[in-house]
Amino acid sequence: MPSPPRLTRRRLLTAGAAAAAAQALPARAAPPPLPDELDPELDEPYVDPPPDRLLQVDLPQLRYPGAWQPRPGVMRELARELRLRTRLEPLREPTVVTAEGPRLFATPFLYVAGEGGLPALGAAAERELARFLDHGGTILFDGADGGVDLTFERDVRALLARLIPGAELARVAAEHVLYRSFYVVDAPLGRTATFDHVLGVESEGRLRVILARNDLGGALARAPGGLPIYPCVPGGPDQRERAIRFAVNILLYATCTDYKADRAHVETLLQHRRR
Amino acid sequence: MNDPWTLALGRAPEPWLLAVLILVGGVALTEALLAFARPRAALTRSRRLLLLLLRLLGVAALAASVLELTYHVDRLAPAAARVVVLLDTSASMQIADAAAGEPPIARLDRLRQRWLADASTRERWRARGLTLELHAFDRELRDLSPRRLDDLDAPAIGSASDLTRALSQLDDPRPIAALLLLSDGLVAADPAADAALNAAALALRAPITTLAAGAPRLRDLAIHDLQAAEFAFVEDRAELRAQLLAHGLEGSLAEVELRQDGAPVAAQRVTLPADGQPIPLRFEFVPDRVGHFVYELVVAPQPGEATLENNRRAVIIKVLRDKVRVLHVAGRPDWDVRALRTLLRRDPNVELLSYYILRDREDSDREDPNAELSLIAFPTDELFSEQLDTFDLIVLHNFDARAHQVGRYLGDIARYAAGGGALVVIGGDLGLATADYRASPLAPLLLLDLDGDLGLSTAPYRPVLTEAGRRHPITAWIADPRLEGARLPLLDSFNRARLAAAAAPFNPAVLLAHPDGAPLLAVAEPGKGRVAVLTTGATWRLGFAPDLPMLDGARPYDRLWLGLIRWLIRDPSAERLTLDLSAAHVRPGEPVELRLTALTAGYAPEPEVPLRWQLRPLGGDHQPAPSDSQEIDPDRDPPPLAEGELITDPLGRAAHRLPPLPEGAYELLAERRPPPQGPQQAPAPPLSSESTARRVLLVDAGARELTDLAAAPGDARLAQLARLTGGLALRASEGDPLPDDLPLADDPLRAAPRVEARREAPLWDSAPALALLFLALGLEWILRRRAGLA
User: Fold this and answer.
1) Does any CB of chain A come closer than 8 Å to the CB of residue B716?
2) Yes or no, beta carbons of A89 and B362 under 8 Å apart
3) CATH number reported for the structural domain that contains residue A260 in this entry
4) Does a structural domain hold residue B41?
5) CB-closest option in A55, A136, A245 to B456
6) Which parts of B300-451 are beta strand (E)?
7) Which of A164, B150, B617, B719 has the fewest CB atoms within 10 Å, i.e. the most exposed one?
């Protein structure tokens, strides 16, 4: 049976990225683009439905007193990658929320970035964050230090000790479905590759908290011209692509939980690999 | 008078009282003796003797009063040798079998013939002093009139025979000289019970002479040793095993049928082997519905069978859901998908099969071909064609069916839903919004008018509970007074639509609505299935909000979805009318009570509810009722054996004792009585299956009495009893006569006469005794006065 006309938002996004790059070039000297990071189909036409006809998901980032945004716009970039690669429909401009603000419970996902430490958020804020987790929310902590400075990790541990008494950040095993919720990922790479695993708090069969320590935001961050801001070390563009894949996996895990651990999927994938 | 007598003390006196009594008596008697020995002028010798006698009498009367003397006279009976005759009156004694070269005859009749022929022998027994007593036994021991000793006239109708119990019930203290057992030997539940039987026989300490009633030639088919699990699971293979026992039918073909509530399920043909060789039977079946069912093995009768009562065996099997098998298909990942998946995964009774569309075709076009993806193809044909009927519930979650090659299966899904399946369609920006179901075979079942542009509205709104929603088990909790003042969270996804006129025959109910009145949650029962349509993809917000109105610790999201799922799959816990029986498997005539419980839409006890119930036979002549929630259909079902109406008490309960029932399988149906109809109104519409309950009842003897009817095992058991106790083993089929010298117990103690009766006469507790006392003492005193001695 023929399919009705489908949306081709990918074309809009890629064209939009090209247009943004063209506008940005005279104003700012961007680092030379890496060939493999350019989209080969920038000139394709674009058709997309009005946003209010889409059931979109937000990827909110927490604002707090301090370095809450070490990699500005990283959620926008992740939303773009998700739209390009998956059927998720993230908001083009993810929101910024505060722990005590009314929008915290608008989405059961929260991105918390930090660099050089995470200040105390205050009792009221922490109470709301605890309730957020208790109701089923997922928090992704992202340390922009990339493993150089463990202060952020230390502060996150302290915060979680207050939010979820008794819970502790633990290594998320390489077999966890987080590493195959969309892509099959070997390691949780970011701008750096210091750690070969992420930490997490798992309860009732799901990760409630994920702590990425390889500066995932640094790998995703792009300048207004659309080019990466930070080089990925030591793997370069390949590492960046793998970091993006891991970030995609995190969001697919957040929305589908352990869907890819279902027996039907595991068996089918194993059969394909044997072939 | 030869009867022995004794004097007995009524009580043992205190030592001091006895001493006083002896002293007083001694002094009185000594003084009387001295007075008698001493001649006096005033008293003649005869007068002195009279005084002495009066003194003796007075002392004796005083002693009798103080010691409460009682006079006992025993009546002794001669030590007659008591012979107990035990007659087996269980049903197997009616079985007709034959000795070589003779026509078949019922076992009891064969015994009677032998008994009548040996009348002279019994007379000689009596002449020797033997006393015969006749008892009958089956499940219990009972006395028979001595007149029956002449003809053994007693019906053999007992549903089973238990000789061990009968022997233990011979509790007459009189010793037994001999026991004559008239039986076919089928008197124990199984060979393992023989040890108890032998022990009971030895405890009698009397020889047991047995007269076996069976004969070697038997023609019979029997279902034996039926074994089945008490529970089975829907859509899961279940097994039922039994043995077929055949006698006298070697080489014949027999057809064995498995029936569910009287309807054939499977059949097997077997060639019958030589006598008594059991044929294992094994039937597999796959229950397709939840409920209680009578599964019965029936072997077609052969000409000339001794009995047809053993040609069938039945058992009640409760069919459960193993796990609720849910197919969850989503058009794109989002928070609503995550919430429903989390809920379903949390329930260990749910077997969840999920397929989420994670990327589009253009996504894959762009993808690095070398990227290793954890994606698999969408197995549409397997899911929607091959396995469709294995699902208890299908959830199409914001799913654009046509874009993913599922459009061709929408007809199958419609057939599934109308045929007894459960379907939920959840809105969003795909599926309902993109007209994927418009003009499809599934469209009429989705209850909504899909012809317009449903689109997607993301403006926040608060769901409104409708009047139908207040009464419906899915949403009645929202009207719970404990939630008064609390409001449901705002939702932000809505496909605006109206109910389709074409859905009217399904009697759809809108339980939740948008503030503008458009349906938000609509449910219906098209055909045999159940369907729910949600025109929002944002119910997840009912479980994730800062100030959720909790009820009994549960989030609104959980209450809504668990209620919805239970209703969709007809979970018994979601039924508002339950029917239970005091026992589901009883013997004929045993009382059975039906118990009904009615709940309100909010699952609280519902008082004053008029209910009606019916009892119907389950046989092969009518279609079986398909499930525990089958509607009462007078056109389809047989007429009821009994029916009635009940009103629930303040706790929502009602009960009724059923009349005694003969053997057979029955179904009990109960439902809320429809409201009375005015004379101008149309007949009441069919009741919703939601308000109907059903149970099955099996009435049978439940024993093995008529299972293995071969004579040989019974003969062997009787011979063993005789050998063990020192009796004789006789066979009526071989013409063995009753012996003149019936083996008797030789215990010498048994020959001693026994006290048959005892008469007691209190010597102290009567007016004559008192009068005698006063008369003796008074008269002595008067005589002494006259003689000038006192």
Assistant:
1) no
2) no
3) 3.40.50.12140
4) yes
5) A55
6) 312-320, 324-330, 350-356, 393-397, 422-426
7) B150
